[in-house]
Amino acid sequence: xxxxxxxxxxxxxxxxxxxxxxxxxxxxxxxxxxxxxxxxxxxxxxxxxxxxxxxxxxxxxxxxxxxxxxxxxxxxxxxxxxxxxxxxxxxxxxxxxxxxxxxxxxxxxxxxxxxxxxxxxxxxxxxxxxxxxxxxxxxxxxxxxxxxxxxxxxxxxxxxxxxxxxxxxxxxxxxxxxxxxxxxxxxxxxxxxxxxxxxxxxxxxxxxxxxxxxxxxxxxxxxxxxxxxxxxxxxxxxxxxxxxxxxxxxxxxxxxxxxxxxxxxxxxxxxxxxxxxxxxxxxxxxxxxxxxxxxxxxxxxxxxxxxxxxxxxxxxxxxxxxxxxxxxxxxxxxxxxxxxxxxxxxxxxxxxxxxxxxxxxxxxxxxxxxxxxxxxxxxxxxxxxxxxxxxxxxxxxxxxxxxxxxxxxxxxxxxxxxxxxxxxxxxxxxxxxxxxxxxxxxxxxxxxxxxxxxxxxx
Length: 458
Ligand SMILES: NC(=O)c1ccc[n+]([C@@H]2O[C@H](COP(=O)([O-])OP(=O)(O)OC[C@H]3O[C@@H](n4cnc5c(N)ncnc54)[C@H](O)[C@@H]3O)[C@@H](O)[C@H]2O)c1
Description:
The protein is an alpha/beta fold. Helices cover 38% and strands 13% of the residues. The chain contains 15 helices and 15 strands. The strands form three sheets. The protein has an eight-stranded mixed beta sheet with strand order 3-2-1-4-5-6-7-8, sandwiched between helices. The structure holds nicotinamide-adenine-dinucleotide (NAD). Nicotinamide-adenine-dinucleotide is lined by residues 25-31, 48-51, 54, 100-103, 115, 118-119, 137-138, 170-172, 174, 277-278.
């Protein structure tokens, strides 16, 4: 018979002694770095993934996530601190389970919670007294209570007594050299105060700083608010860029000047559009939820519209510049520099580059790309561009010279922009990285060196 008085006390004790086994469902961009931090903090980690390929690579000590170095993973795998498995029945062996599965949108841009539901079912199936479950996937306020709690309580267990349930959003910013999983403050909210207490006990031993909020819903909303803030401010920068184009003013100069204000301004930059698994998608989780409550999130809708028009804006710039040179898009050879959704990462999910390629192909251009981080665009059956799989071409003088136009879509830091400037016939730079490189460059707004063209009205 157990000497512990309650599942909660037993769990606390196992967390304190580092005997707790930590399960992670989903070993992707979020789950694998979390596995490393839990292992670094002294816990044994069981990572679960439905992809046999992911399980195999992790168990062989090879990282498929850029922010996790293979030697670090290999050391933890070698010492038995991290193990991956596709056998979800082993969830029963875990004291704490963090759920890090995808939360995409479906074809009609509504939340697709099928991965969360599948993970919740797997946990429910093996749920036993004294388990802590923390949902990390970004989602709308109410998910933890409405989906996970409802499923877990079906068997008659009581939250806060038999098992503990929290939401703690992941804020990882892939490729960020300063802020990573451990040193980024971690928000957590529990379904009950006891849940929050247990969740904090574990994560306080893993993260440098914890931020406790009043409920799971507050934690869920914190995450979507952060990403909505970013998405709306990027939309504003994109709108200012388009306004600058009409005014004939260089948008980068304006942004840099505004950013010299030491208070009350935060710098956001325009670009070819939003990408990734977070900023373009997460706000739709909030707007969908609010629609079910008869509340319209107008700023999200408008910002989404502005951002999603940016790939077409870039293609219009390309068409205008080719037109100036008596060329049509049809038959032109276009080289994209960068297809990842942002600098120095290998993620093309939702990347605006894909829409730019699609639009150019639709207009009859012959499109190639160079991206040192993304060597292939695979044919996943969803990407609506022709000629897949596509492979990155080498960035050579002859490749640059043979292009009618080079479009900078992603400003990777390892690209030789001097080589690009010296050899490309025409450059459309959607990121402002080529500004230092001379006159043949067209930015999002106007050609560098061109005088402002203010129109007087009235
Ligand atoms: N990528 C980011 O930068 C980032 C940042 C913050 C938050 N998030 C959020 O974190 C969540 C996870 O995103 P990600 O980028 O890590 O996704 P990902 O696609 O990189 O990884 C998810 C993993 O989960 C696995 N999986 C799916 N369903 C499963 C199941 N039922 N059981 C076991 N494994 C399963 C997949 O095979 C995959 O390996 C999402 O909600 C995302 O919005 C992502």
